[in-house]
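Input chain follows. Return structure tokens only.
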Amino acid sequence: MVRIFLFVVAMFSSVNLLAKEVTFTTVDNASIQADLVLRGSEGVILAHGAAFDKDSWGNIQTRLIDKDFTVLALNFRGYGQSTLGDKPGALYEDILAAVLLLKEQGMTRISILGASMGATAAAEASVESEDKDINRMILLSPAFIAEPEKLKGYLLFIASEEEASISAIKANFDKAPNNPKALELLSGKEHAQYIFTTKQESIINHLILTFFRKDSFIKKEVVETPEVLKQEDTLKKSVAEQQDE
């Protein structure tokens, strides 16, 4: 237990040493606190769930940085030192402001990883964004999306096949445009960021890294693949590909 604790502390400490704390202002005057690690010209925004904050991403944040992504992990309004602004419920504005910040940093491609509440905010930001501002999105357990048919960019939905909101998640996926899109269902009941705490972590990390690193997508290929992943086969594939990287 002590070794596990020390490993987790070291992992978060390494990210904190790399990160620069920044604040930026939304159009409705909220001040948003975030950690920014500048790497390559492709940026990823991490949008946390309701029970989490900007410091909760752990290994996947480190892996993205290691793969040369610039990573911006934000605290939504009302979390940490982020203020509520004129529209306290407008979390999507936090993401739109984060997109603007990354554009100002010279990012040539901007993607979002949103979990649960963060997925809902990311989806709304996608609808409200300018075309091509958000290249691709990964939505973890997106139980509520106001206008799924208007989502932009390449889309990957990830959820647990037995989680409580699975029917709503599948319905949102079905309504989303084929830009293209894909749905990956993992075994278990865990919701959104809680999936990272299970033995599915290797699988979900592999899915995220592969999606963000992929150069192009083929509609036919993506449409035919929304199936439940078989844990053993996927883990073997994941390990083999990571050894080749």
